[in-house]
Write a structure and sequence with these properties.
Number of domains: 2
CATH class of the largest domain: Alpha Beta
Number of helices: 12
CATH architecture of the largest domain: Alpha-Beta Barrel
Distance between the termini: 51 Å
Bound molecules: ligand LLP
Strand content: 15-25%
Shape: globular
Radius of gyration: 23 Å
Length: 456
């Protein structure tokens, strides 16, 4: 994906995978955002998530402009909601908002972060398949721009909450189109046999939309469709857009109410390994704009305002995880194969994705020139189980040794946000780098933080 940033990186740091400002210095060490990773490690310790702020902002802007330009000929605007589940902190919520994005939250906790960042309630959306009454009350008190309903039962619950709050709740209805897209079954969300949304083909979507129209405490903004995550084939977006436009027209024919907005969700895939090609937001924007125009023309309805909810594609590639190498151990796998196990000072507690989804990453030694012949290595963590793998298979310099700094790129999305304290390992900090300055935006957890929860 083009982010409008110049990539001055040598060939072994694929710019699709590494943060935009990653560079190899004359002595072979890598810097990001103008900060030498050795200095960063010395000042802030490892493991640490290192986030390229300019890259984050550029990617956020890129989504906004690509979709605005693609839909402008249709005469409709586009709202881009940054999906906070990928990674949310006060700083990134503020950056996203400064770049003209709204914030998509999925829990009261994410909502609290967005509000703490000073994002106006109107620019925040709330999702969730099992929202609590407290979450609904809080969202309404904050005046959120929309609540995305996920079940028929929730229609009544949100209407009741709006009545309690003495307000009218702006809502969308999340529908499932049967389009199955994305990298792994756990992250594909619009096929029928799962917990999210209301089925279009089963009729539940239409029933929920009509139920919303019957409640004066609810303002029906539109229809929401999210088909999955880490999608690299754009055809699913078009298929889903077709189905949603047809549902919108059907509802209008039945009730006279043409919903003003349609959300096409997130799910834009990124490159994790060198050579992988990320989904191009510009191409998806153009293709979906064409689909929406064609579908609406054939249905005889004016096109709706569009919103999207990218998370991974904005934050994923902006961040690398910086580790220090500890134990290095050659393991004889077969008579011909010796695998070098490289243990780092983190693992599945800071990146659950390899263990949970079999996700593949790459890694590189970043504290020195790495010109030795390579060995076949497996990067593993420090946790008490053999599935604690960070990078299953990667070529590392044969002289990789204790004390080297190792970076794993493309960990910005669903890294820190799914991190745990397994084995009582404190979660790493998030350090933002920009113009030669490193700023801690989420501090490292301490043993005191962990013990503070243990009331004995
Ligand atoms: N909107 C909704 C309603 C979603 O459920 C999601 C992701 C997004 C937007 C953002 O999707 P993105 O653009 O980030 O793909 N933990 C998994 C991914 C779970 C995605 C959940 N929903 C992973 O690490 O791959």
């Amino acid at each position: 994906m083009s982010t409008g940033t110049t990539h001055a990186v040598p060939p072994h740091l694929d710019p699709a995978v590494w943060p935009a400002s990653a560079q190899v210095g004359v002595d072979g060490a890598v810097s990001v955002g103008g900060v030498d990773l050795r200095t960063l490690a010395a000042d802030h310790g490892t493991p640490a998530y290192v986030l390229d702020e300019a890259d984050f902002r550029a990617r956020a802007r890129h989504f906004r402009t690509a979709f605005a330009e693609a839909f402008a000929p249709l005469g409709v605007g586009v709202d881009v909601y940054y999906a906070g589940k990928a990674f949310l902190s006060v700083a990134v919520a503020r950056w996203a908002h400064e770049e003209g994005l709204r914030i998509d939250t999925a829990t009261g906790g994410e909502l609290a972060v967005a509000l703490r960042a000073g994002v106006p309630g109107l620019d925040v959306g709330l999702h969730g398949n099992n929202k609590s009454d407290a979450e609904l009350d809080r969202a309404l008190a904050a005046g959120v721009g929309r609540i995305v309903l996920d079940s028929l039962e929730e229609v009544g619950r949100v209407a009741d909450a709006a009545a309690r709050a003495g307000t009218r709740a702006p809502v969308m209805v999340r529908v499932t189109t049967g389009v199955h897209a994305g990298g792994h079954e756990y992250i594909s969300t619009a096929h029928e046999d799962q917990k999210f949304g209301l089925s279009v083909t089963g009729g539940q979507a239409l029933a929920a939309l009509r139920a919303v129209l019957a409640r004066p405490e609810l303002e029906l903004l539109g229809i929401h469709s999210h088909i999955g995550s880490q999608i690299l084939d754009p055809s699913g977006f078009e298929l889903a857009a077709h189905k949603v436009m047809a549902l919108r027209a059907e509802l209008a024919a039945l009730t006279g109410h043409l919903v003003p907005e349609v959300d096409l969700g997130g799910g834009f895939g990124i490159a994790y390994l060198p050579g992988e090609v990320p989904l191009d937001p510009e191409r998806v924007a153009k293709d979906t704009a064409r689909t929406v125009a064609e579908a609406c023309a054939s249905l005889g309805t004016p096109p709706p305002r569009i919103s999207i909810e990218p998370g991974r594609a904005i934050v994923g590639p902006t961040t690398l995880t910086l580790y220090t190498v500890g134990t290095v151990k050659p393991v004889s796998v077969t008579e011909d194969l010796v695998r070098t196990y490289v243990s780092v000072d983190g693992g599945m507690s800071d990146n659950l994705r390899p263990a949970l989804y079999g996700a593949a990453y790459t890694a590189a030694v970043v504290s020195r020139a790495a010109e030795a012949a390579t060995v076949r290595a497996r990067v593993v963590g420090k946790h008490c189980e053999s599935g604690d793998v960070v990078v299953r298979d990667v070529a590392l310099p044969a002289d990789v040794a204790r004390g080297d700094l190792l970076a794993v790129p493309a960990t910005g999305a669903y890294g820190r946000s799914m991190a745990s304290n397994y084995n009582h390992v404190p979660r790493p900090p998030v350090v933002a780098v920009r113009d030669g300055v490193a700023t801690v935006i989420v501090r490292r957890e301490t043993e005191d933080d962990l013990l503070g929860l243990d009331v004995g």
